[in-house]
Amino acid sequence: MSFEPPRKAILSPAQLEWFQTSDTHKTVISYIETLNEVIVGAKLSDKCEESTAVKAILQILDKVEQVAKDTPPVENSASRFGNPAFRTFYDKVNELSPALHSEIPSLPQDAVPEISVYFNEAWGNRSRIDYGSGMELNFLCWLICLEKLGILQENDHKTLVLRVFWRYIQVMRVLQSAYWLEPAGSHGVWGLDDYHFLPFLFGSAQLRGHKYIRPKAIHDAEIVEEYAKEYIYFACIRFINSVKTASLRWHSPMLDDISAVKTWDKVNSGMIKMYCAEVLNKLPVMQHFLFGSILPYNGPPPPDSSTVDSHAGHAHPHAHGLPMGNVNGGIHPETQRMSSSPSLPPIYIVHNSTLENFLLYINKQSPPSPDAFTPNSSPPSDSTPDVDVNMRGLYAIPQSSSLLTTPPSSTFFDKQDFEDNHNVEDVKLYIAEDIKHRVRILLPTFLDVILGLPPKEFNDLKLPGKPIGRVKSDEGFKQSWNHYCSIAREGSLTPQGVPVFSTEEDLYRPLVHVICRALDIMFDGKPPLTFFDSHRKRVHGSWSQRGPDFAALPSHLSLTTGEFDGMKKWWPLFLYILEVKHHNGFALDWFYGRSIGVGPEHTKRPSPTPQDQKKKEIRKKWKRKASSLEEATETHSGSVLGPAFSDTQQDARASTSASIDDNDDEVVPASKRPKITDAVDEQESNVNETVESPASTTISGEANDTQIQVASYALDMLSRGLLRTHTVAILVDTTCLQLAYYDRSQVVVSQPLNMYGQDDHLDLFLAVLYQISVQGSMPHMGLLPTSIPNFTITPKSQVFPRIEPYFYQSSEKAFSGSMLHLDAETQLQIGDVIHRAHGVIGRASIVLAATRIRGNWGLELGNDAVVKISFPTTARDPEAHLLKLARAKATGKHAWAMEHLPQVLWDKEYSWDDLGTPQDKLADLLQQLDDPQTPGVPAYERRTLRIIVLRRLHPITELTKPEDYAQVFYDILQIHRWLVDHPKVFQRDISLANIMFSRNKADGTVRGVLNDFDLASRLPLSSESSSRTRTGTKPYMSHELLKPPVGKRTCHLYRHDLEALYYVILIVCSHYEDQKQGIHKITDPKRCIYNSWFVGSHSSIASEKRSALAQDHLSIQQFFTGFTDILTYLRSLLMIGYQESDANTLSIKLQGDDSNFQLKLQLFKASETQAEHKFKEHSLNDRVTYQNFQFLLSEGFKLQNGSPKRMVQRYPDADVLPLNPRDFDPEGDLI
């Protein structure tokens, strides 16, 4: 037999079509099916006979793994994926390959050059440092070759899967983890996880016929952990769970949908069909397939090599947008059907001029000089080629810049905010709270108020010869729009002419074509915006794994493949987002919540499309012919999973509805909770249904899911880099349109409308495209001029600080490495994010580590600092002002307080009132609505930007002695009361993150520092609430503030902060254990019994806290046992106080064993004469008081030997002033 080195041969659709009927295709499929059948019911622990050849192969795999261990990854701060050390590993394996193959008995040496190529290419691509199902296929082909040569025999088949193939997967997991191989191709389609397909296929075969385990069991963590030892499928799920933080629905939607299939037999048969369709029948995969003498190619010759893209495997044909310079009015070819994902990321919109600057950086053309980073410096010279003068300053600093070659100092501030480190599912709960009170307005009102297009100007745009008029009269646009509607409503055709239902992905290319055509006409071939598809690769600067994959870029940029592949996408680049759905409008919000100007005539949803009618007929056929379910399903390709999984349509739909949102029912009160229904069933039963009341709360599951998904993208837009006042999203569901506006005070959505067959509605869509395009350098797009020196502003506008660059190429994190220019004398280098708010609504505080480059504070204060950027309401007292008042009082006998207060190094407040943003118009529009949480308070609050620089402090988790924690907690109690008594400042936000410490310079003893005065207020409090946001941090807030008792007015009292301090001590003592350099949170979630307080709804946390106060048992870690008496008595005081409050009676018994404590605490009780008693609500009848807390915290701590340890008193009793209850309750109800 004559051997030959394998080569690529499939470079065109015609060649791929030939391959489907070739002997090589049959060989691969037959081999997979053979291995599949032999392991049905088998376990990984089953005994397998290992032949001499199998043993040799296993030894080879062991040696490959050892090569990886001997080639550790190198430092690679420039990118998270693709560690360059992989290339060294790849070269070593190639060099060893002949020797490794020589260890296989009876292998002809002249065959090694051919079969070794499959082996060498099975570990990943050297140049791209990626891995996908094509490389996995190479390993399978290597085994096929060995069997064709007689090295492997039929009786080896079971061992090949359970030993050899599984060992290969284990080695690949080592490589993927060590070198962070980039997922090749398309995550979720050609690989079920980021990389693999075959382990899931073989793994489902193992489980066929299992008596107990069902596919849905992959969602049960305990089952996954238990069966991962025996079954490949569960082992793969366990690996995914170990590297992903969110649920399968977010990062592995295909696996999530497959779990709805009822039996493993159906899963397994579907996997084989899917492998044929999505791997062996996909050009981006098969163009890399290697043919030799053993696996030959005898098909048609390849096309001219000059037309072939050597890296087309990363440019998936189903999602390309058309270059805007190539729009000629013709209809592009039918979209090839692809399997869809139920929750794809959006299409982003970015200004062309911004892209040009970014590409200049990539190409290293004329980077800005170091002088460009001095305050008040001029922009780059006019000689810089092809740069829009209005966008100068949007440069990324080259890595060679001497100013930024030293990374920010690594300190505790590199960590997340203690317990406040949430995953995607947790953040969804915050988002659900934010969108719960959204407001719907008509789209013309949205255009006027938010996008700045008044009705008269809108009507002018529709005139002949005007932008919209020209688009509507253009035949090419008409054809593009009609083609999109046809695909969306009726489906498309396969290359063989077979009609199939369209999926969400099928809408991308025709929709981008419609948009590009419209913009090209409006702006005479030079549109200001570029739309690009983003549903594959993540956006940098965010911890979430999502973002754009590839772009529809302007043709005049002439990007090469290498330039495009090397281009990272960052949140600061994007101005707007466009989310696409395919549920005929049922993924949009038609009814929920409050509305302005929306009547019943506006809430008619679209009639079923022809595609919907066909689906309905198929569902009826399923019901009539349950026994022939599979046959009926073979004719239906509209499932999320495609035709491969024939019994999943109903189950997958049910799964989609059931898993829309994991927030508990308490997020929306039961009386107002939206009815969660199935979108498809609603289309059948509620067509053209009108809602009599504009405040109806009916909402489909898909609509709720969409609102949360898009709001989460808005959160990233608002907090990942550039500072924005607001952001806008466009939602297109089939032919329906909805806009969404997000700022830190309100979420506003437009009433959806159907553009199909209604020219006036299509006009509105075109007006949206036009208006967002012409706002390129205007504040209506929400971008504050913090990074654009030549930003167009009115003469009255103040000079905003600059952030340069607005992203830093060598960092994966927003802000990190950038320079912050605050004024001519103050310049900081920004480090990592210490804390970022998880919700859209509120102050949206971002806390950043920073290092002084220049600054007017003393050298003794050091160069390390903290920058806090927040957006408080204009009515709230500035934090810096309150701190200055407090420090002014800390003189003479009060000088001790200075060590317990944060030190402000720089501060300033910025208003955007004169920038022309939509906030003023929006406030006027919404003034007719009351805040749903605080009736009588306007629904919209104006906000301002505040930046404050503080001296760096230490988190209490760095303390190493229990007694130091006791002293810090006592210090916090004292400084908090001193602030109330003397500066008359009420902090109102005691939390673990806000309790810091410093050390006295003289003796090194600790000093507790009360930090973060964003929510603080002057006393007496105003009778009107200054913010509708609940005051405090959820895990530490009193249950009364989280969920006010029915029929009882609740305001923030002094005792509520005392209760918050109790919860801080409780969580520290329960959730943290001793480590050498401080304490660390316990990793076992079962031992962190209060975890739900960090992710639950306000109502659920309130209920849990009431229950916790009634429980006698405290789960205190060994390191903190000295706090047992303190926590026991504090809990007892709170519990009895609330019990007495509920019953308005007195109860004397306190829980605890120390009789001295019992006696002492009674001295602080109020009169027990019932006849004269009026219950003191402000102190729970003197139960929850400063005196009681002071006594317990000063004398209650015990050392490990059991002896008491008295804490140092800073605030003398003689200086403590009586509380005035009316300072906290101006109306006097709680006195």
UniProtKB/TrEMBL annotation:
Region span, Disordered: 302-343, 599-702
Database matches in Pfam families: Pkinase_fungal, PTPA
EC id: 5.2.1.8
Broad class of where this protein is predominantly found: cytoplasm
Compositionally skewed regions (Basic residues) per UniProt: 616-626
GO molecular function ontology, one term from the record: peptidyl-prolyl cis-trans isomerase activity
Domain annotation Fungal-type protein kinase: ranges: 700-1069
Compositionally biased tracts (Polar residues): 646-660, 685-702
Record field: catalytic activity: [protein]-peptidylproline (omega=180) = [protein]-peptidylproline (omega=0)
GO terms classed as biological process: mitotic spindle organization
Gene3D superfamilies cross-referenced by the UniProt entry: 1.20.120.1150, Transferase(Phosphotransferase) domain 1
Record key words, sorted: Cytoplasm, Isomerase, Rotamase
Subcellular location: Cytoplasm
Family per similarity comment: Belongs to the PTPA-type PPIase family.
Designated name of the protein: peptidylprolyl isomerase
Species assigned in the record: Tetrapyrgos nigripes
